[in-house]
Specification:
Alpha-Beta Plaits; 2 domains; 4-stranded antiparallel β-sheet; about 425 residues; mainly alpha
Length: about 425
């Protein structure tokens, strides 16, 4: 047992320190994007059911560091603002499949080829599903509702500005607090599963079964489609399997379908956009994932260069940088878990509601900000583990339920 724990911890630590420097840098880049791209700009250009709106949705979605969970309320708001089905689905595919943070994390464990191909696949998937949806769907004249002023730094709804120092502070608080809290659970699960695969599963077993591309593609589709995993959390799992001998194209299939086709997203698409859109969404992603997986393995097969999982054979960061980054990342993850799972006291003094699809800090923040915009709300208490929201103040049940639904979430009065 001691030997198992020792070997397992070593493998997890190896994955952690390889990812940590690039992941931390990616978080900072994500913080900059959060400040530079206001949400109202996202909603403004996606209303027309044409190729332009689909293209813009995919282009916007690729760099945004939004997880599989966080993209659902964003997509719900897009639809509420009369965005076309095509642009909504395009955004829903490209956003969780890629991201500036996952780009650097992919580079760290899977090398530059994977890092470049992955966002290209995400963008292509978004374009394909959006165009396919517009072709097969019904077109209607859409009018974008006026989007109220929103601030990426605070929750004040009146037009205002912030100082450079306030913006810099928000970049880092969003990067190392908000974003780590959103992705931390899935990153932790990915590292644990990656460590288990690296330590327990023999290379001969992976090579014998998942080394055969067409078998591996099907297996990764079956695993990745229902699995709830973010773009970053999927990386250590894919890297461990490829290092053990799985076809690299199958890893790319998993990296595409895993973040984009979990059960929560499929339920949202089917419920909000209809069964027809769900079928288009699922088939499009599977087709693109298989095409990219097959092409990727073909290119690697005919290439004379050693570009399989690199682990940066030609470039090594100093061990002290990787170790320090690993320690910082672990500290941030511990802080995130404490923040998320620390029970916020439900006082029992207000109206209490259960929000079954609230699962992360991003969800709680959107719900809290939506509720605080209601006149008469004195305080909002949210318990993420128990999925409870308590609202104190002189406000009706209907107003509260409408605000939570407008944020993109389902609700039940407790």
């Amino acid at each position: 047992m001691v030997l198992f724990l020792e070997g397992f911890v070593i493998e997890v630590w190896k994955l952690t320190i390889e990812m940590a420097p690039y992941l931390l840098f990616g978080f900072v880049m994500a913080g900059l994007l959060h400040i530079l791209i206001p949400q109202r700009k996202i909603y403004k250009y996606l209303s027309k059911p044409n190729f332009g709106s689909v293209f813009k949705a995919a282009l916007l979605g690729v760099p945004l560091p939004v997880c599989s969970c966080g993209v659902i309320p964003l997509a719900a708001h897009l639809k509420k603002q009369n965005a076309s089905d095509g642009s909504t689905l395009s955004f829903l595919v490209s956003t969780p499949t890629s991201g500036v943070d996952s780009f650097f994390a992919t580079y760290s464990l899977l090398g530059p080829i994977f890092a470049i191909v992955r966002p290209i696949a995400a963008f292509t998937s978004g374009i394909f599903v959006g165009v396919f949806s517009n072709i097969t769907g019904t077109k209607s004249r859409l009018k974008l509702e006026d989007e109220k002023f929103s601030c990426n730094i605070c929750d004040i709804s009146q037009p205002h500005t912030h100082t450079i120092l306030e913006k810099i502070k928000r970049v880092f608080t969003y990067a190392f607090f908000d974003l780590v809290e959103d992705t931390g659970k899935w990153l932790f699960i990915g590292l644990i599963l990656g460590g288990l695969i690296a330590f327990l599963i023999p290379e001969a077993f992976i090579g014998s079964y998942l080394g055969i591309p067409y078998i591996a593609y099907i297996v990764m589709l079956l695993i990745g489609t229902p699995m709830y995993v973010c773009a970053t959390g999927s990386i250590p799992i894919a890297a461990s399997l490829v290092l053990k001998g799985m076809a690299p194209g199958a890893a790319l299939v998993f990296l595409i379908v895993g973040p984009a086709t979990n059960t929560s997203t499929l339920s949202f698409v089917g419920g909000k956009l209809g069964v027809k859109s769900l079928i288009v969404y699922l088939i499009s992603i599977i087709i693109i994932a298989l095409i990219f997986g097959i092409l990727f393995d073909y290119v690697l097969h005919i290439s004379t260069s050693e570009i399989l999982v690199s682990m940066h054979e030609g470039f090594h960061l100093p061990m002290w940088i990787k170790t320090l980054a690993g320690i910082i990342l672990i500290a941030l993850l511990i802080r995130a878990f404490i923040s998320i799972f620390k029970l916020r006291r439900i006082k029992g003094m207000g109206k209490i509601f259960r929000v079954p699809d609230m699962s992360c800090k991003h969800c709680a923040t959107k719900i809290e900000n939506s509720l605080k915009n209601i006149d008469g709300v004195l305080s909002v208490n949210i318990n993420i583990p128990k999925k409870l929201v308590e609202v104190e103040g002189d406000v009706s049940t209907e107003q509260i339920m409408m605000a939570i639904k407008n944020a993109g979430y389902n609700i039940k009065e407790d």
